[in-house]
Design brief:
Elements lengths: L31 H10 L5 E6 L2 E6 H17 L7 E5 L4 H12 L3 E4 L6 H11 L1 E7 L3 H5 L10 E5 L9 E3 H6 L16 E6 L9 E5 H11 L12 E4 L11 H8 L2 E4 L6 H11 L3 E4 L1 H14 L8 E4 L6 H11 L3 E6 L6 E4 L13 E2 L4 E5 L14 E6 L16 E2 L2 E10 L5 E6 L4 E3 L2 E3 L1 H9 L4 E11 L3 E10 L5 H8 L11 E4 L13 H9 L7 E2 L1
Parallel strand pairs: 1-11, 3-4, 3-5, 4-8, 5-6, 6-7, 10-11, 10-12, 12-13, 13-14, 25-26
Antiparallel strand pairs: 1-2, 8-9, 14-15, 15-16, 17-18, 18-20, 19-20, 20-21, 22-23, 24-25, 26-27
The protein binds adenosine monophosphate.
Length: about 550
């Protein structure tokens, strides 16, 4: 009998009323005002450093908590009431960090807006959330100004920066703070189940869906980031947060920083490899968090310019599959160890981390972090064994996993209390999860599944391949066959790439078709956009350069 995942949720509702209540302070609310109190009491030596075009700005935590108080006063003056949504449209910066706390701690809901959304999607999410106020970086304001007449719920725009904007009812952030009293803000008692933040999924299929995080979920998630068996962020860390703060709570690192007062190094719009490498060198960064495409850029830069990355303890790599060849090259050539992690908007995001895997460049996403439960299911929703082979849809539950979408019934997203992730994975007997696909990206050839992710990882291990994305092509005989779209750094033929794959995969996995392209479409958060790639193929725009 193979070992399976955790016991399924019982069909009958759990009885939450205890037979004999424990005598602990169970009414202590796990809410963000606590995290803010902690940061105020234990500010340590930590600071928030922001890269701006004029150079780095820095502020120690006592200065920042005082500014958060002023911002909370200002929100009250603006008429924001508890439960109302307040948007941010911003790069990673100290001001964005201040919004992360002032908005939820004053009882409102922080709605982080993805700055790369198409204007129609942006208008959709702002209107769906009914944002009352939006905090916007001056450099990004024109994008909001272009749709402002379609945003009836927004009563004020608060502009972060000096450049004048065309936004109606705009007020400057610093002006707003200057008009606030210096007295500490009297934060309300916030029940831990109150909503604290809202983030919409990137909507690669259908309309974006809102994930509404409770205070409790955020506090528990951020405390788990400090566990050594999870990410293990420490008070002494100097953490470069490249992952956008508009995406899934900035992986929870700003909240974790409130708990341990570690230093946050925020690159603002300077997320290109050169400024990032300089930030690491100059600030002696100890941890970095970003998606694989940024690590790939960093690797190319480091190979050429040899920056000193020796201060980094490790880099957290998530958001899409970590190509083992990339992890190996960063480790061997630059001494940087990557820590592979899996998560999604609906899981706050941290769900699994590969901390304990003996192979540091394993493609496995890792084990579920404490308090998150993972299982795999078949098409009927039945649980599958943890044998390291049988693929199924990955499902998750836990205190920082979504139980529903905001103002959107979407029952399809859940199975008996578990979140259906839409990821296809297998789990080995030790509990290590390995994603093989998204359910919508998996290639079904002659009734068998081909993992696009595995083919991509293998292709990206070829020295001539910079990027590779594999999608399904309709096929009369087999139903679907894989098509590999490849960006080359030096000449290589389809035959050579097939030969490179041959020893590693079953022969029916070998793609007959390759499309050699100059670049691959990416989503707003830097992942390969397979929907766009499929559209290009359908429009015949991948044809040029294809080879059978
Ligand atoms: P998002 O909600 O935009 O953060 O996207 C979440 C999705 O990104 C997951 O459901 C996965 O498909 C993908 N993803 C996240 N982390 C990883 C990872 N380490 N490896 C492979 N895919 C990942």
């Amino acid at each position: 009998m193979q070992r399976c995942g955790p016991a399924p949720v019982a069909g009958t509702p759990l009885a939450f009323a205890p037979v004999l209540a424990g005598l602990m302070q169970d009414d202590f609310q796990l809410a963000l005002p606590y995290a803010l109190r902690r940061l105020r009491s234990y500010p340590g030596e930590g600071e928030v450093v922001t890269l701006t075009t004029a150079g780095a700005t820095r502020a120690a935590y006592p200065q920042i908590t005082a500014r958060i108080d002023r911002l909370a006063h200002a929100l009250r003056r603006l008429g924001v009431t508890p439960g109302e949504r307040v948007g941010t449209f911003a790069w990673n910066s100290q001001r964005h960090f201040e919004c992360y706390f002032a908005i939820p701690c004053s009882g409102a809901v922080l709605h982080t807006l993805n700055i790369r959304l198409h204007p129609d999607h942006l208008a959709y999410v702002i209107n769906h959330a009914q944002d009352r106020v939006i905090f916007v970086d001056d450099t990004l304001a024109p994008r909001l100004a272009a749709i402002a007449d379609r945003l009836p719920s927004v009563m004020r725009y608060v502009v972060m920066g000096e450049t004048p904007t065309d936004l109606p009812n705009a007020i400057g952030y610093e002006e707003l703070l200057a008009d606030s009293p210096e007295t500490p803000f009297d934060y309300p008692e916030i029940p831990e189940r109150q909503a604290a933040a809202l983030c919409y999924t990137t909507g690669t299929t259908g309309e974006p869906k809102g994930v509404l995080y409770s205070h409790r979920a955020i506090v528990l998630h951020s405390s788990s980031l400090l566990m050594t068996d999870a990410i293990g962020l420490q008070a002494s860390d100097r953490a470069v947060l490249v992952v956008p703060m508009f995406h899934v709570n900035g992986w929870g690192w700003p909240h974790a920083a409130a708990l341990n007062a570690m230093t946050l190094l925020l690159p603002g719009p300077h997320v290109q490899p050169e400024p990032l490498a300089k930030l690491i060198e100059q600030e002696r960064a100890s941890v970095i968090g970003c998606v694989p495409t940024i690590y790939a850029d960093l690797l190319r830069y480091a190979d050429e310019h040899h920056p000193d990355l020796s201060s980094l303890r490790f880099g957290v790599c998530g958001g899409s599959a970590m190509p083992p060849a990339l992890a190996q090259a960063l480790h061997d050539r630059h001494g940087l160890r990557l820590l592979h992690a899996w998560g999604m908007t609906e899981t706050s995001p941290m769900g699994a981390v590969s901390r304990a895997h003996p192979d540091p460049v394993s493609p496995k996403q890792g084990k579920a972090v404490p308090f998150v439960e993972l299982r795999i299911t078949d098409e009927g929703g039945g649980e599958l064994p943890w044998d390291g082979q049988t693929p199924g849809e990955l499902e998750a539950r836990g205190p920082w996993v979504a139980s529903a979408y905001y103002e959107d019934p979407s029952p399809d997203g859940f199975n008996d209390g578990w979140l259906r992730t839409g990821d296809v994975a297998h789990i080995d007997p030790a509990g290590f999860v390995q994603l093989t696909d998204r359910t919508k990206d998996v290639i079904k050839s002659g009734g068998e599944w081909i993992s696009s992710v595995e083919l991509e990882n293998l292709l990206m291990a070829h020295p001539a391949v910079r990027e590779a994305a594999v999608i399904a092509m309709p096929d009369e005989r087999f139903g679907e066959r894989p098509l590999a779209a490849v960006v080359l750094t030096s000449p290589a033929s389809a035959e050579e790439l097939r030969e490179h794959l041959r020893p590693h995969v079953a022969s029916f996995w070998l793609p007959e078709r390759f499309a050699f392209v100059d670049s691959l479409p990416k989503t707003s958060v830097g992942k390969f956009d397979k929907r766009a790639l499929r559209a290009l193929r359908e429009a015949g725009d991948l044809g040029a350069g294809s080879e059978r």
